Amino acid sequence: VALIPEMAVAIETRSAAVSIARFKPPRPARTIGMIWRRSSPLAGQLGRIAEVVKRSAEG
Length: 59
Prior knowledge:
Blueprint lengths: L8 H5 L29 H16 L1
């Protein structure tokens, strides 16, 4: 038994003889986050990436 993200189903099942069962609503969910050091030379870029990801997730 394995739990995989929806976006991985096509790749993981194309060459394997497996069965897929999806959860009924309410489906499980998870929270993701980003973290970096304030002193990182990439802090500005990482902050902008985080904002783009946040806006994308909000729809």
